[in-house]
Amino acid sequence: MLVGCRFERLSLSAAWLALAGFSRRGAAVSARGAKENLNVGTIGHVDHGKTTLTAAITRVLSTKGKTKFVKFEEIDKAKEEQKRGITINIAHVGYESSLRRYAHTDCPGHSDFIKNMICGATQMDVAILVIAATDGVMAQTKEHVLLAKQVGVSNIVVFVNKIDLVDDDVATLVEIEARELLEQHGYKDESVVVVKGSALKALHDDDEECIEKLISALDAIPLPKRLQDEPFLMPVASRVSITGRGTVIVGTIEQGKLKKGDKIEIKGEGECLNSVASDIQVFKKSVAEVSCSNFDFSLVLVTAGKIKPCMICCGG
């Protein structure tokens, strides 16, 4: 028997899906289920350009009619993030290529926010390791690769950023250094794709080719096996409180499926909540069912207490 649980119901307003940064175009695609889904994310040392690259990807794909351009300041939108110029909380962005739909998690690089990075990495099928050519492999580069391996990220694509600021020889040395690091942690060299470019230039229309190469590399990553027949499990990636209503929780389903009316439990941090899924929304659409094989980020509103990132939402 679970002690200290409260019984509540779930509901969700479509407006809150904007928290995940998805476009209306993405909603139509998800409803048809016409494209494969892959969960990706940016990891790496602080100030190496993870958020800039995330924004650049959406800008380049927006010119092809594939997604909505999400500006840098819309990703790092918290006041503290803008004040300090670094990512603190994980951020979610959706976009699509000609072959796949992507749910993208932008992780913080600063060592003070490593727990947030771990929460983001647990949602990824593949990680984009961003390394600034001006610095090379740094402390959080190494730590993020180690953590990615430990939480089960099976594929990493390397983006060597800021190559416009160094000679070609330096960029090549950074690539070699990155490959050696990944091989040390069990990522086979022949399977690692390295893309070089300038995320800042791509963001300002000057270097679209590097983004196109990056997307091609992501499109070629084999899809992971989805555990659709296992019990429902979704780590809480982030949350936003709504006065008078409760807390919106955002997460990527790791296994199983969830239907409207299903009982759920949210556990962790010494807390336990029993609830019922009265509504589920993905890509700005209310859906009857969501599973690990169909969708990426799911948003649920719970009228409940102390929900924190890295708690677990599971079948009740």
UniProtKB/TrEMBL annotation:
<dbReference type="GO" id="GO:0070125">
    <property type="term" value="P:mitochondrial translational elongation"/>
</dbReference>
<keyword id="KW-0479">Metal-binding</keyword>
<protein>
    <recommendedName>
        <fullName>protein-synthesizing GTPase</fullName>
        <ecNumber>3.6.5.3</ecNumber>
    </recommendedName>
</protein>
<dbReference type="InterPro" id="IPR050055">
    <property type="entry name" value="EF-Tu_GTPase"/>
</dbReference>
<keyword id="KW-0963">Cytoplasm</keyword>
<keyword id="KW-0648">Protein biosynthesis</keyword>
<dbReference type="InterPro" id="IPR041709">
    <property type="entry name" value="EF-Tu_GTP-bd"/>
</dbReference>
<dbReference type="InterPro" id="IPR027417">
    <property type="entry name" value="P-loop_NTPase"/>
</dbReference>
<keyword id="KW-0732">Signal</keyword>
<keyword id="KW-0547">Nucleotide-binding</keyword>
<dbReference type="InterPro" id="IPR000795">
    <property type="entry name" value="T_Tr_GTP-bd_dom"/>
</dbReference>
<dbReference type="GO" id="GO:0003746">
    <property type="term" value="F:translation elongation factor activity"/>
</dbReference>
<dbReference type="Pfam" id="PF00009">
    <property type="entry name" value="GTP_EFTU"/>
</dbReference>
<dbReference type="InterPro" id="IPR005225">
    <property type="entry name" value="Small_GTP-bd"/>
</dbReference>
<dbReference type="GO" id="GO:0046872">
    <property type="term" value="F:metal ion binding"/>
</dbReference>
<dbReference type="InterPro" id="IPR009000">
    <property type="entry name" value="Transl_B-barrel_sf"/>
</dbReference>
<keyword id="KW-0378">Hydrolase</keyword>
<dbReference type="GO" id="GO:0005525">
    <property type="term" value="F:GTP binding"/>
</dbReference>
<feature type="signal peptide">
    <location>
        <begin position="1"/>
        <end position="28"/>
    </location>
</feature>
<keyword id="KW-0460">Magnesium</keyword>
<dbReference type="GO" id="GO:0005739">
    <property type="term" value="C:mitochondrion"/>
</dbReference>
<keyword id="KW-0251">Elongation factor</keyword>
<comment type="subunit">
    <text>Monomer.</text>
</comment>
<dbReference type="InterPro" id="IPR031157">
    <property type="entry name" value="G_TR_CS"/>
</dbReference>
<feature type="domain" description="Tr-type G">
    <location>
        <begin position="35"/>
        <end position="228"/>
    </location>
</feature>
<dbReference type="GO" id="GO:0003924">
    <property type="term" value="F:GTPase activity"/>
</dbReference>
<keyword id="KW-0342">GTP-binding</keyword>
